[in-house]
Structure formats: structure tokens, C-alpha cells
Specification:
By secondary structure, this protein is an alpha/beta fold. It is built from 4 helices and 5 strands, in the order βββαβαβαα. It has one domain: Nucleotidyltransferase, domain 5. α3 packs across α4. It is globular, with a radius of gyration of 15 Å.
């Protein structure tokens, strides 16, 4: 059975999203969403964020979640990576889906490289491209998961 994955590049301003499947190991970036207060006091994902993610899960028939976690250069956990793991586990429980975590130390830098390689020389990033960077980073996180 083909599995469809939803990947997250959780950031303090935006969360990049990407989908892919394990039949052809194809991936596709989705629109990044503004990062809001994802966690409520009880540790659950906030209702508005949950509803938006549920809609994506239904539309794409997602059956597995992948979260990128930013580790230190030496591989140790960071404050943000611990928070992302908590969000990922909470979301997985609320959606009744499995979740995996992938080291994403360099995904945003690699996404910048990919976007710059496809941009005319001398052009600056526009806000739209900055949001796209987060989703390209999510796509790279998913590709990393597939390659492991």
C-alpha cells in the first residue's frame, strides 16, 4: 500500500509543508503557513492549526507525519528541537497518525541554495520566495527521510 507523508519545517515565523509518497519517492512543496501558537497550555496543538492540518491530511490522504528537528552541529537536541518533538507527538496523537523526526540542521540553507540556483543572477529574494524556502526545506526534510 502506498503511504503519503506530510513533512513539516517548523519555524518561528512560518512552517513549511510538503507532501510525498513512498511509491515513487516523489515530493512536492505546499504553501507555508504562518506559525501561530501551536501548543496550548495542555500540550495539544491549537484548534485553528489542527483544523488546517486536518484539511491537508484529508485532501492528500496523508497517513504519516515527518517533522524536521534542528539539532546542534554536534547532534545534540536544542530547545526548539525539543519543542518540535512535543508538537509532532501531540499532533500525531490528535490525528492518530505515526510520526517520525528527521535531522534538519541544514535544510533551510540547502533550500536557499536550490532557490538561488533557479533564480536569475542579481535578483533578491522576495517575500513570496522566503515563504517558498520554508516549504522547499520541508520537501528536503521529506527527501532525507526517504533516503534513510
Amino acid at each position: 500500500m502506498v503511504k503519503t507523508f506530510l513533512a513539516f519545517d517548523f519555524g518561528t515565523k512560518r512552517t513549511g509543508l510538503a507532501v510525498g509518497n513512498d511509491l515513487l519517492y516523489s515530493t512536492q512543496p505546499l504553501a507555508a503557513v504562518p506559525t501561530r501558537q501551536y501548543l496550548q497550555a495542555n500540550g495539544k496543538v491549537a484548534v485553528d492549526a489542527l483544523q488546517a492540518i486536518e484539511a491537508i491530511v484529508r485532501t492528500w490522504k496523508v497517513n504519516h507525519l515527518i517533522f524536521g528537528v534542528p539539532l546542534n552541529a554536534d547532534g545534540d537536541e536544542t530547545t526548539l528541537s525539543k519543542r518540535i518533538r512535543k508538537i509532532g507527538r501531540s499532533l500525531a496523537q490528535q490525528l492518530d497518525l505515526p510520526v517520525n523526526f528527521v535531522d534538519e540542521r541544514y535544510s533551510s540553507g540547502e533550500a536557499d541554495r536550490v532557490l538561488r540556483a533557479n533564480q536569475p543572477a542579481g535578483k533578491k529574494f522576495k517575500q513570496k520566495q522566503i515563504a517558498l524556502r520554508d516549504s522547499v526545506a520541508a520537501e528536503l526534510i521529506l527527501q532525507t527521510y526517504f533516503s534513510n
